[in-house]
Amino acid sequence: MDRRPGLSVRVKLTLSYAGFLMLAGVLLTGVVWFFLLRRRSRLYIPSIEDFRLILDPSNFGPAVFSPAVITMFAFLLVVGLVGGWVLAGRMLAPLTRITNAARKVAGGSLSYRIELDGRHDEFRELADAFDAMLARLEAHDAEQRRFAANASHELRTPLAITQTLLDVARDDPNRDGGELDDRLRAVNSRAIELTEALLLLSRTDQRSFAREDVDLSLIAEEATETLLPFAEKHDVTIEISGDVAPTVGSHALLLQLTTNLLRNAIVHNLAEHGSVRISTAAGPESAMLTVENTGDQLSPQLVATLTEPFQRGTARIRHDDVGVGLGLAIVKSITQAHDGTLTLTPRASGGLRVAVRLPAA
């Protein structure tokens, strides 16, 4: 934004200090002159009329404008300007550090921190808020860089497989065309699934969706009916319970969230006789969706990374059901887009407990 040149804040504060000091000196001189020189009675009580006389310039005699008084005012002016300049500089020093930090951040240095010391005041509160903002920006930038690198790798994998299959088919004319066609279709389907997942992540990050009244209990029932054959195939039983849990959001996205959690709980389960429990609950200010599954013992360190993109935990996944590694990342993104919180907790007996808390309708 183009602005006209003006005085700096330090100059304005200096002039303000000096002007206030001069005004205080003038008023003090007038009061001393009026009450000590013109009113010599000890018991004299000033009235409103006396203060009017003080403010009337015609009542000031030559003694008020004597060289001594003028010298005193000049001294006060110099002291006010010098002292105001020094005090303004000391008071605005934190603001200078914040400005320098903003310039460094604009140059790409997100790791810089102000770390302003001293007691709490407005400048230090601003500096702490600026440092917290920089920490979030740095973490988000690092996450985006990792996501871009992982997405590039994941997208490159099906393309490389397709290229290899085509090269082998070209070098081997007698190769079965039906087998090649099936493998190419499988690779292409995986690439489409990954692309759709990336687009869904982008959509939720931008919060470009309509909101409506939604009942999490009905969504849980819908997702369970959809994935029941998938659970039976993997020898996993699903238990569903809970109360009506109204919230506000996108029905399609919240169904995607629930489906991802349920499918993840089925895939990451015991080899035989596994179970999944999905429940809903409503509170005065929130609606809760909880999904628990049996499975292997999980460390808190591993659980803390499961919501990052492309974190599959491959040692626990069945190879015939490997996803694109964005299931829980999409759940996290949808939860944040609905102003909710996502909590992952390892179960003591094995498996995982995932709780999604959303604002109540």
CATH superfamily of the largest domain: Histidine kinase-like ATPase, C-terminal domain
* Number of extended strands: 7
How would you write the strand order of the largest sheet?
2-4-5-7-6
CATH architect. name of the largest domain? 2-Layer Sandwich
CATH top level of the largest domain is Alpha Beta
Q: What average pLDDT do the residues reach?
A: 78
Task: Kindly estimate the percentage of residues that lie in beta strands according to DSSP.
Answer: 5-15%
Radius of gyration: 36 Å
Keywords, separated by commas or semicolons:
361 residues, Helix Hairpins, 3 domains, 5-stranded mixed β-sheet, two-stranded antiparallel sheet, 58% helix, 13% strand, elongated
Write a compact overview of the structure shown.
It is built from nine helices and seven strands; from the N terminus they run αααααβαββαββααββ.
Outline the structure in words.
With 361 residues, the protein is α+β, with helices and mostly antiparallel strands. The chain has three domains: 9-109, no CATH class; 141-206, Helix Hairpins, CATH 1.10.287.130; 212-359, Heat Shock Protein 90, CATH 3.30.565.10. It has nine helices and seven strands. A five-stranded mixed β-sheet has the order 2-4-5-7-6, with helices on one face. Strands 1-3 form a two-stranded antiparallel sheet. Helix 7 (251-267) runs antiparallel to helix 9 (327-337). The two termini are 42 Å apart. The model is unreliable at 314-319 (pLDDT under 50).
